[in-house]
């Protein structure tokens, strides 16, 4: 690779690759998959950008080889930055995340201490990073939409409820509270539109047919954007304190769709307030506690400061600052 700047990503598909792909061109930093065996000896240039997700680089989130690899590689570039998509996992004692969390934290800390600048998508992640490296230039920006940012959100909306994302993410929305999504849609006269890879054969895929869900399958970014621009609501099962890292929530917000967030607990996180920037579950829709047009516009206002160009500008600025 002859590029003067490089974006290092984990192997495979997913949100990290999608995010890095959008930024790679304007930053003039093409993507390169990094593994333990990648030959990096000949790489050199202006800046190196690591897109870090522990589970992307190793199935249990402990890529112990990564710190040593980066430590040698960073000296071949004038600046080294990290986008922390994730830091570490937590969980109950009977889960592997509980026992591996300490090792995951050490890897994130060691990478942080090697960096010249960093960017992350959650305020809570930023607090953890700042406790370990206060002087390093940084930015906190929720993720952007990977399916476009429409020039206008003043579009004709229909009584549609979109369920968008991977099969696993969509399944969580459909299965929430034993299928409350279907009942809520019927009570409120909403047509359900399913957008994403086909669901595996089984009871859920059969129920989608029985409930009359309109399945679009996997669409191009342009087609997803068109579908979102005509919808009132978009459902997503996701913790409110992590939703700023969800590209699905970003897609809903960028298109002024009213997000219906499904969670066991709600609170104010990353500038997001329940029933202001998203509907607090299906109950808020049933009680008419939210106006989808108003919520959609508020979600869009929240989204605007961290559009794609804001991420590009932040990374360019920090790169320039550390190279002076």
Structural notes for this entry:
This protein has 324 residues and is an alpha/beta fold. The chain has helices at 15-24, 54-57, 64-73, 96-114, 123-132, 167-175, 180-187, 203-210, 221-229, 247-254, 281-286, 292-303, 308-323, and strands spanning 5-9, 31-33, 45-52, 77-84, 117-120, 138-140, 158-164, 191-195, 214-217, 231-237, 258-262, 279-280. The protein has a six-stranded parallel sheet, with helices on both faces. Helix 10 crosses helix 12. The chain is globular and about 60 Å long. The model has no long low-confidence stretch (mean pLDDT 94).
How would you summarize what this structure contains?
The protein has 324 residues and is an alpha/beta fold.
Sheet with most strands: strand arrangement = 2-1-3-4-5-6
What's the total count of β strands?
A: 12
Q: State the low-pLDDT regions, or none.
A: none
Question: How helix-rich are the residues, as a percent range?
Answer: 25-40%
Kindly report how far apart the N and C termini lie: 26 Å
> Taking Cα atoms only, what radius of gyration do you get, to the nearest Å?
20 Å
Give helix and strand order, one letter per element, not per position. Answer: EHEEHHEHEHEEHHEHEHEHEEHHH
Structural class from helices and strands?
alpha/beta
Q: Kindly state the mean pLDDT as a whole number? A: 94
Q: Give the number of helices.
A: 13
Shape: globular
Largest sheet: 6 strands, parallel
- In terms of DSSP E residues, the strand content is 15-25%
């Amino acid at each position: 690779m002859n590029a003067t700047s490089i974006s290092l990503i984990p192997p495979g598909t997913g949100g990290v690759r999608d995010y890095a792909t959008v930024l790679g061109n304007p930053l003039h930093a093409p993507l390169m998959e990094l593994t333990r065996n990648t030959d990096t000896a000949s790489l050199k240039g202006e800046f190196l950008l690591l897109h870090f997700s522990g589970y992307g680089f190793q199935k249990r989130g402990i890529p112990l080889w990564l710190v040593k690899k980066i430590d040698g590689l960073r000296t071949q570039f004038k600046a080294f930055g990290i986008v922390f998509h994730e830091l570490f996992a937590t969980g109950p004692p009977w889960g592997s995340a509980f026992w591996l969390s300490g090792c995951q934290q050490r890897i994130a800390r060691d990478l942080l201490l090697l960096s010249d600048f960093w960017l992350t998508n959650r305020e809570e992640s930023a607090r953890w990073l700042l406790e370990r490296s206060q002087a390093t230039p940084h930015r906190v920006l929720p993720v952007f939409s990977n399916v476009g940012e429409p020039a206008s959100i003043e579009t004709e909306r229909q009584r549609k409820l979109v369920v968008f994302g991977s099969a696993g993410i969509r399944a969580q929305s459909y299965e929430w509270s034993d299928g409350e999504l279907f009942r809520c849609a019927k009570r409120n006269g909403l047509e359900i539109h399913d957008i994403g890879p086909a669901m595996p054969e089984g009871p859920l895929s059969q129920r989608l047919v029985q409930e009359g869900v309109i399945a679009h399958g996997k669409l191009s970014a342009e087609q997803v954007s068109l579908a979102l621009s005509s919808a009132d609501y978009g459902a997503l099962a996701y913790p409110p304190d992590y939703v700023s890292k969800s590209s699905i929530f970003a897609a809903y917000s960028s298109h002024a769709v009213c997000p219906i967030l499904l969670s066991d607990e709600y609170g104010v996180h990353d500038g997001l307030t329940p029933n202001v920037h998203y509907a607090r579950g299906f109950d808020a829709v049933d009680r008419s506690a939210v106006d989808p047009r108003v919520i959609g516009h508020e979600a869009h206002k929240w989204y605007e400061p961290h559009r794609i160009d804001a991420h590009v500008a932040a990374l360019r600025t920090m790169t320039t600052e550390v190279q002076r």
